[in-house]
Amino acid sequence: MKGLFKGLAVTLKSMTAKKVTISYPDEPLIMPDRFRGIQHFIPDKCIVCNQCVRVCPTDCITLTGKPNPDPEKKGKVIDTYDINFEICILCDLCTEVCPTEAIVMTGNFELSAYSRDDLFKDKEWLTANDRLVRKDNNNIGAPVKGGGK
Amino acid sequence: MIRTEELLLNVGPQHPSTHGVFRIIVKLDGEVITDATPVMGYLHRGTEKLAENLNYTQIIPYTDRMDYVSAMTNNYVLCHAVETMMGLQIPERAEFLRLIVMELQRVASHLVWWGTYLLDIGAMSPFLYAFRDREIIINLFNELCGARLTYNYMRVGGVKWDAPDGWIDKVSEFIPYMESKLEEYDRLVSGNEIFLARIKGIGVYDAETAVSYGLSGANLRCTGLNWDLRKTEPYSLYDRFAFDVPVGRTGDCYDRYRIRLEEIRQSLRILRQAVEQFPEGGETMGKVPRVIRPPEGEVYVRIESPRGEIGCHIVSKGKAEPYRLKFRRPSFVNLQILPKLLIGETMTNLITILGGIDIVVGEVDC
Amino acid sequence: MGDLLREPLTWGHALIFAAAAILLMGIVLGFVTYAIYFERKVIGWMQLRVGPNRVGPFGLLQTVADVLKLLLKEDTIPRKADRVLFVLAPVLAFVPAFAVLAVIPYTQSLYFADLNVGVLYYVALSGISTLAIVLGGWASNNKYALLGGMRSAAQMISYEVPLVISIVGTVMLSGSMNLRTIVEAQSGGWFWNWHFLPQFIGFGVFMIAAVSELNRTPFDLPEAESELVAGYHVEYSGFRFAFFMLTEYVYVYAIAALTTVLFLGGWHAPAPFLAVVPGLIWFILKFACIVFFLFWLRATFPRVRVDQLMGFGWKVLLPLAIVNVFVTAGYIELFIKH
Question: Which residues of the sequence carry a binding annotation for [4Fe-4S] cluster 2 (chain A) (predicted)?
């Protein structure tokens, strides 16, 4: 019997205790800086090195490059860049390997949509997703300056 | 003439107490179970097969999704296996961070178990209490690695992130908080006569049976066997810390319950020492080649996950991808004893026993 | 109302009775609506949440919204179900739940039927709801529902017995089965005149058996969610399901009112100087305390196992209730009888 009453005392005390719930959709939930949310893409920084595509564990990134329109510069510039959020697991590996920080994580996480098609995000959408961009990217996997192999 | 017949009851895959998509086909004679067949595979994603086409860094996010209640230990077992193969040195700070997150994860995992087990037994509030405290750990992880459930925190050779400013202090604040909450849990549930009557003497097996079924974790220690890989085969830095391994006597659900709660206390004890000894400064990433190619050969490492012995067997052909990767998942192995325990029990005890084994379906099906 | 009942039934009287019944129905529905709201709030607070707060001010319209949703839901009857029984069961569950309210006296003058066997009437009618639950479980043609229905039959029969016998002590002390007379027997001005102190064994047994009769935690085995998914009403949806829920909460109303009447002195104030407060207020206060207690239990306790439940009912509660009858008899024989 004693155990039953002890339990009752705990729940009665909790009645007046501070509530732990948050009114989430009313008040936006601010995630810490390191939060891995939907990626932000900066086309100008991209050197079309294909590292993110190769490292992606779920193959959700596709990109194509085109020759640099400025004939004096070498290399390519990004043409299309798509992330399929049906299968993206936000594992952070693409931002980890990006040598120029062209793709970075943000604190946005609200991805739900009525249609699967809405989950296919293209370059423009990702570029426009520029709120709450992560400041510290800690690119441990990226090649050191001067390029990898 | 009264005709009696056995009732074939399909428990799951959609059932509130099978903790996911797990299914048991039970034959009932009245409310007494005469036969039970577990059916698994509803959450099978082929992690091991997928891993054969992925390099080692890419496999880490997949391990998060095996035992999603305890992703840090899964991260660790894979990284530990690769590091063992390659003979890598891990910086001390990284190893400390790994140990701290693993112990926090153990606390979080046992809290989930505690809450859901009480929910299975019919008490609603403990679930909310447990999740209130787990939320603190989850938020700590969120600050550390930017995710709340699938952390992808460890890397071969170290950890992805160093602890942010003030993070270690937050961990040390959490320890006394959690200890006080454990007392509250005891007051709320552990002495409750209804609860004790429900779990004492249920699902009993002896040490010999446990060993022959390959059980591990609290399911093994409840029989009195003192077998905790953190003590018996110390990995990481566990040999530096003082902690006890709680063991049971009778091998029933009550012992398993008590052991898991006591393990939270012991984890907090380890955490307290780890936070005190946490090294100032230092690298969080060891010297690792650009492309991780373990030498040809095989390795099997095992560590103590909250659910028991999680092992990782890698067969490498010297390539960036494993030739074969096999996880020994404690939930899967521990589940083998379920049909044996269920025969002769009632429907109500099915839930008590299944909950007491503490399975995570993501890990059972892998 | 009592006098009207004794007169020959005319159309005018029938109309009055119907109006009174509809009024009571309105009160009961209002109670059920806000009991559910109150329950969710209380349990929410106890679980460190705030409870419903989205629909209407402070979430006051939450239950209304829920009922509307149930009303608009598709009415499904499983193909293999026994249609007649399946449709009949919720009705059969609700009718006795509402009918028992007729004998509850709220104050000296506010009551519906002044039945001289009020206690017996209550107990006899409430037994019928068990039948409805078994029927519902059987007619659904679902194994979980069947198990839930069978459990509920076993449980309700087992607990009906100690419930009735625990009331016997009160009936003996008051010398009547009329609920109004029982309340009158508890007058005296002070709260120690109420039956819950002299009848503390009876009160304890009654409370436990009552919680069990209500199928509420810790005795909510017929609808044990974690084992039987939802028990007897697993196949019910929409308004038929709402009727089962309604029955459950009407019984909460009935049991709380009955406990107040039998053991907590009905409309009497706990002390003579508090008698200025109207009796109805006291009745509502005591009633609310019991309802709160039921919710409190639900927020705290795990569920009892079915075999332990049976054992507890027959081996502990029943003997206790019988001992209570004998002790009361001895007490009356030695001290009260002149």
Answer: 56, 88, 91, 94
